[in-house]
Every structure is written in C-alpha cells, then in structure tokens.
Amino acid sequence: MENLEGRISAIEDRNRRVEAEKAWEVSWCRRSIVTLLTYVIAALFLWLIDNEYFWLNAGVPALGYLLSTLSLPWMKRWWMREH
Fold this sequence. Notes:
Blueprint: H1 2-25, H2 28-48, H3 54-57, H4 59-82
C-alpha cells in the first residue's frame, strides 16, 4: 500500500510541475522576456553592422515574435477542432 501512495504522490508532483511549465509557456512574463531579448539581440546585431536606425529596426523581429505568440492560441484551437 505504501508503494501505491508513493507512486500517487510522484504522479501528483509531476502533474504540478507540468501545470507550472504549461502556465510558464503561455505567460506574459515569458513572452515579455523573449520579446525583450529578441529586441536587444537584433539591436546589437544591427548596431554592429552600422544600421542607421538600429534601435527602431530592432523592433521589427521583436514585434513579429510577439504577434506570433498572440495568434498561436487561436490557431491551436482551430487545429484541435479540425484534427
């Protein structure tokens, strides 16, 4: 019986971890961090190649990433309905 309780406890711990990871994947905190990192890396690259408006042009890939994360939940729901 003790082994069964241990297995159930391990499954519950795993479920909590998986739920937390799923919440992180869709969180605005994660999206904001990745968007900011994308902006900084793009700005640095553009600055290194002497782009005149590197600070402005770096917003294009960052905004593209952010917009793609906004469209994915809708697309996921559509895909799940179709398949």
